[in-house]
Amino acid sequence: MATDPSWLYSTIAQSSAAIVAIIGGFITATVLNLLSEKRNLKNQREDKETRIKTLNHTKKELMKELEPKEVSSFIEYITNDIINSNQTPTFKEIKQNYPYAQNLNLELLKKEYEIFISQIIEARSFIKKYSNIITVTGASTFDAWVRMYHLDILSYNHELLEKEYNRVRTDKLASVSSFECTSIPPNLLTIDLPYIQPISEQQELKNMSDKIRESEYEITSLENDISSLDTRIKSFSYPPNLGWGIIVLGYLAVFSIFLPVLVLSQEAFFPWAKWLTTSSFWLGIIGVFTYIVFQIRALRRK
Q1: What is the pTM of this model?
Q2: b/e for 85-117, b at 16 or more Cβ within 10 A?
Q3: What does the pLDDT look like over 140-155, one tens digit per residue?
């Protein structure tokens, strides 16, 4: 009685299926872990990019608020110098005489300075027009002088008019003889102190500048982090010899699982089928172990 060969095909099919499941599961798990790591790196990069966009928006809004205040503060600072000099320096001369101006928004500064100079010219023209009624013994303050002569100043810059008035009146006081000067009551003398920025305004500008610097520092730090993440993402690679592993498992699945099952289902127990199935199984086993050895060697090199 001939021995039933079905046990051989069944054993080969089951053994091959177990090997394919184990090695295939290991490869699949490794690939999924790597893909998960890559996805995590990309998510981190996207989060940092979103944070940078938020910081840039915040910085932009702070700059929009800070720059006009800095320009206004700077113009206030140079106002007395320009009034007292009785000159109208050009924007280029302002940049040369006041190096701090280079730290400001020059486009905005130029625009505001042109408006400021036009207001000064208007103020000087107005005061010059009525300079003959400015006296050292008359009204001691600008507002009193305006009320005394019922002057219309609504279309002018009140502050600049007052400064021009004080300058002209001070010049007239200086032209009086020393004897006459001594007879002038102290309350007639107007001292035009240099502009001193209020402490609250200084603190506000400082706080805004600090926030902008903090945003710039964080943006730089985040950009460095993104550069590091990009390097890691670009260096991402699948396990070495992954393609060969898939080929070996595919070979084992076809010739050591599918083929034996087909022979069993058809009961085609031909000698060549036995030889092909057995030899294919052992070749597949050799391929699996070779792949494992190469994987171990690759891991030891890292």
Answers
A1: 0.60
A2: eeeebeeeebbeeeeebeebbeeebbebbeebb
A3: 788 888 888 888 899 8
